[in-house]
Design goal:
Helix content is 35%, strand content 15%. With 119 residues, it is α+β, with helices and mostly antiparallel strands. It has a three-stranded antiparallel beta sheet, with no helix packed on it. The N and C termini lie far apart (110 Å). 0% of the residues are buried.
């Protein structure tokens, strides 16, 4: 059991080391070999990266590791938040009991009584 736990711990450290190394290479890549990159955005929310090389303009693939921000280009998009309707300030007034109370409080006064009847 302890040998398996040690192996798992060593594997976890190796995976972490390779991840940190890949991020280090991604950060150092533009410093070692700088290239002119153009970002072309579309109205649909997608973008295309064009790299200026000696052979001309080349489209860079989605997995081009030229910066740490490009490494998450293949990640799934975030879940869009559905806009909720703001609560109406007088929504409670539409309930039947509250509507009756408001109608009673804001109703016109009762008509005046007439003169007493003569008998």
């Amino acid at each position: 059991m302890t040998a398996a736990r040690r192996t798992f711990s060593a594997l976890r450290l190796w995976v972490l080391a390779w991840f940190v190394a890949s991020l280090g290479v991604a950060v150092a890549s533009p410093l070692v070999h700088p290239q002119s990159i153009e970002v072309i955005c579309s109205g649909a929310g997608t973008f295309k990266l064009l790299v200026q090389t000696d052979d001309g303009t080349v489209e860079m693939g989605a997995m081009g590791m030229d910066c740490p921000l490009c490494s998450t280009a293949s990640a799934p998009p975030p879940v869009p938040a559905l806009p909720l309707a703001p609560p109406q300030p007088l929504a409670h007034a539409l309930q039947p009991v509250e509507a009756a109370r408001i109608a009673a409080a804001t109703a016109a006064p009762l008509p005046a009584r007439g003169p007493p009847a003569r008998s």
